[in-house]
Amino acid sequence: MDRNPWPAVVAVGVLLAVAFGTILYGFSIYVTDSAAGADFSSSVLSFAYTGSVVVSGLVAAPLGRWMDRHGTRSVAAVGGLVTCAGLVAFSVAGSSLPLVAAWWLLIGPGTAMVYYEPAFVVINQTIETSVRPRALGVVTVIGGFAGAIFLPLVEAMNSSLGWRPTVRVLGLIIGGLGLGAAALTPRRGARSAASGLQARLAFRDVLADRRFVLITVGLILTFVAFNGLLAHRVDRFTEAGFAIQTVALLAGAASLISLPGRYLGPMFGGRSHGASVLAWFVLVLVIATALTIPSGPDWFMPTHFVVYGLAFGAILPLRALAMDQWYGTDHYGRRMGIQQTATLVVGGTGALLAGVLRDTTGNWTVPMTVLTLAAASGLVLIVAANRVGRY
Predict the structure, then answer these.
(1) pLDDT band per the 50, 70, 90 thresholds, residue 1
(2) Among 55, 136, 326, 132, CA closest to 216
(3) 214 and 384 in contact (C-beta within 8 Å)?
(4) Helix (H) or strand (E) run with residue 162 in it
(5) Rounded CA gap, 21 and 30, in Å?
(6) What angle, rounded to 10 degrees, do the helices at 132-144 and 146-161 form?
(7) From the CB of residue 257, how many other CB atoms can be counted at a distance below 10 Å?
(8) CA distance 385 to 391
(9) How far, in Å, CA of 340 to CA of 317, rounded?
(10) Distance CA 147, CA 23 (A)
């Protein structure tokens, strides 16, 4: 091993937290009338952002395969610089076409390289097996601070500097953090990134693995519920009569409540079976989703945010841990990339599904019921995956 890998683990955690805060959470500020919403329509901005998520998902599979063969050292640097270029291009865009191009052609591919997936591969390739659960917990805890820090930070910067300088400054920070993370990443790590990859893993062979297919479809359904909740739960509870300020406050608190689960989830998974512990946390998500179906009693609303907070932070690292325990370094990046593509592209339809059902039925009962059934179905498939042999 060229050097201690722990600084790289922390560095990629900070990189993904700043990227998440700038792009995912920052977008909710950029879209307002006090920022880019004053220059572009909500439809154009939403189209640009949604496209970047889809592109990020499509890039995930080939990126995972590339990391298996070449390692992760250059990914953070390239991702940071591409994301920086995209944010700078967004900040100077004067019309819709260059704005959409910045998000689709630069920010989308860039985020595929600076979000969680490459961080998980860094851990898989550089950290010894016995301490990977702790590393996964550390990375996701760092990422968990993104919303709490960047929502007020981006708003403060936007108010004092304007949205265009704010986006440029944050983009330059991401570029610098990407270069720093690359410099700290071991050149080869605990195991050669290419070891054991002499044989090519064909896509049909991935699909022949029943366990992989079951957990992937289960995660897709789980993320349908996940994305539907994130997009619409504030509207759902305000429609039920709760003050939007109260709902927003509790939504923010849920991010902080998630911090213990982000660390303890993979630690428990490391002591037993990651997929089994993942199933328990998905069960908690099912309960949280079910609490949004009725309009009352009043205590359902705060209980939802507490229960949701306990669950959602642990699901990402436990998914990575389950895959690590099942496959080790055997084409880990390729498997994770294929899974990420599916969960982002298909699971991302949850928000659209819930919105269409709301407009069709005139209330939130049916869409929240459908989201609950999706999460419950995902749970069944994840449990089944844990009971099935590899082939």
Answers:
(1) very low
(2) 326
(3) yes
(4) none
(5) 12
(6) 30
(7) 20
(8) 11
(9) 13
(10) 11
Q: What average pLDDT does this structure show over 345-368? A: 87
Does the pLDDT value for residue 128 go beyond 50? yes
Give the Å distances, CA to CA, from 212 to 278, 306, 324.
14, 31, 12
Contact 352, 61 (CB under 8 A): no
Phi-psi region of 241 (alpha: psi -120 to 50; beta: other; left: phi over 0): left
What CA–CA distance (Å, rounded) separates 233 from 254? 12
Residue whose pair of structure tokens reads 């939403």 in the numeric block: 46
- pTM to 2 decimals? 0.84
Pair 45, 31: CB distance under 8 Å:
yes
Question: With contact defined as beta carbons under 8 Å apart, do 239 and 301 qualify?
Answer: no
| Distance between CA atoms of residues 102 and 36, nearest Å | 14
Which residue reads 């090519």 in tokens?
200
Q: Label residues 203-219 b or e (16+ Cβ within 10 Å = b).
A: eeebeebebbbbbbbbb
Q: Give the pLDDT mean for 335-341.
A: 91
Tell me how far apart the alpha carbons of residues 12 and 116 are, in angstroms, rounded to a whole number. Answer: 9
Q: What is the pLDDT of residues 20-31, one digit of tens each?
A: 999 988 887 888
pLDDT score, position 190: 40
Residue 240 backbone phi and psi in degrees, to 5: -80, -5
Give yes or no for residue 3 having a pLDDT over 80.
no
Please give the structure tokens belonging to residue 361: 């039925």
What is the reported pLDDT for 222? 95
| Distant-in-sequence, close-in-space partners of 201: CB < 8 Å, separation ≥ 6 | 331, 334, 335
- Cβ contact 33:161 at 8 Å: no
Q: Which residue has the tokens 């592109």?
A: 55
H-run or E-run covering 320? helix 300-327
